[in-house]
Amino acid sequence: MPIALNPEWPQLALYAIGAAFVLMLLFRLPYVGRALRALFSLAMLALCLLMVAQYVPFDPTLSSLANRAGFSGQQVAGEEVRIRMARDGHFWVNARINGVERRLLVDSGATITALSQATVAQAGVKRDATLVPVILQTANGAVRAQAGTVERLELGGIVARDLKVVTSPNLGQVNVLGMNFLSQLASWRVEGRTLILTPKPTTGATNDAG
């Protein structure tokens, strides 16, 4: 198959070289260069802050700090939930993701909540635009993933809003509830064969899930 070069690319390359040359000349001017350098520094700072802001929801520690400071969009509230250990030794829970019922594995070893692509499609999970690609480290190596936001996740008496999630065809069909959810709780602990999830604003009632 013949390969043709898009004729617009050479023109764009010339424009880029010309723009870089003009900027270099402007930077040499005393006042104009100083102003441009200041604007460039502010633009780089804004870009870095935006990248950090996009990363915060995926890091349990930073997400918890942002939530305490009132900067986090993720919210987890409701009543205490107790989850009994399954026969396989794991804690599974039935939850509703944007109204769609799904079974999730509660995994404190997972940094971020991960949903299968089928769940994302059926629950209508919104895909997020990110400046940098989301790369996950799994048992099978690095995996490129797509970020998204669950508007509402109901787990027994607990409701999470605007929960950040990731999805990738390489993650399989298992839905995993990770630390970015657990870190939003007042506490979570295992007593015997029961996992106890306690949200921050407790109302006194207890629900069983799983």
Architecture overview:
The model is unreliable at 1-9 and 202-206 (pLDDT under 50). Helices cover 32% and strands 35% of the residues. The protein has 5 helices and 13 strands. Strand 3 (91-97) and strand 4 form a beta hairpin. The chain folds into 2 domains: 9-53, no CATH class; 71-198, Acid Proteases (Cathepsin D, subunit A, domain 1, Beta Barrel), CATH 2.40.70.10. The chain starts with 7 loop residues before the first helix and ends with a strand. It has 210 residues and is α+β, with helices and mostly antiparallel strands. The chain crosses the membrane at residues 12-31, 38-58.
Short structural description:
The protein is of the alpha+beta class. The protein has helices at residues 8-28, 30-55, 60-69, 117-123, 179-182; strands at 75-78, 80-84, 91-97, 100-106, 113-114, 126-127, 134-138, 141-155, 158-167, 175-177, 187-191, 194-198, 206-209. Mean pLDDT is 76; it is low at 1-9 and 202-206.
Helices and strands, in N-to-C order?
HHHEEEEEHEEEEEHEEE
Q: What is the top-level CATH class of the largest domain?
A: Mainly Beta
Q: Give the tally of structural domains.
A: 2
Shape: elongated
The CATH architecture category of the largest domain equals: Beta Barrel
Count of helices? 5
Secondary structure category: alpha+beta
Q: What is the fold named in CATH at topology level of the largest domain?
A: Cathepsin D, subunit A, domain 1
Radius of gyration: 23 Å
Bin the helical content.
Answer: 25-40%
